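Fresh eyes needed here. Have a critical look at this protein's tokenised backbone.
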Amino acid sequence: MKKFSLLTLIEISLCAAFAFVLDLLPSIKLSSAISVSFAMVPIFILAFRWGVKASFVGGLLWGLLQIVLGDAADDILTPVQGFIEFFIAFSFIGLAGLFRPFIQANIHEGNKGKTIFLVVVATFIGSIGRYFWHFLAGMIFWGKFAPEGQSPFLYSLIANGTTMLLSGLLCAIILSIIITMSPRLVKRFA
């Protein structure tokens, strides 16, 4: 197994820390279960620069920072639920890294339109990867907080589906602007 270079490890650490800091900023709260944030942007940039492995590790590190620094304390009901939502879910943002070779090739060719399209698709794939695990945890562990008469499945689908769609859309817009204005930020030189 190929080890990460020092540069890659530094970028993983910086992106995870930056995602953590962005997550501390106020998010758009639609309800107690639905909030919209752009904190995934650094992990997506990591995915577009270094690929799946680095972005999986970056997401995992971001989830670990949430737990270690106490930001996740109110969101952990059981150890299994905490593991699913803060280790597995955050890691799966890295699925966006599957598109790295295509994004890099289109940046290199100067094809902005196709690059933006791929970034948007990759952003939604990473968002779906993350929120699938939040959906499962929501259905299993948070379902007891569903409104009277609503199934845990529907409650989790509405809360996590809305959060995923809106957060994914916000991240896709921000990433499209970033790549349009400064494609060098996601272009890998090493």
In short: The beta strands are 28-29, 35-36. The mean pLDDT is 93.
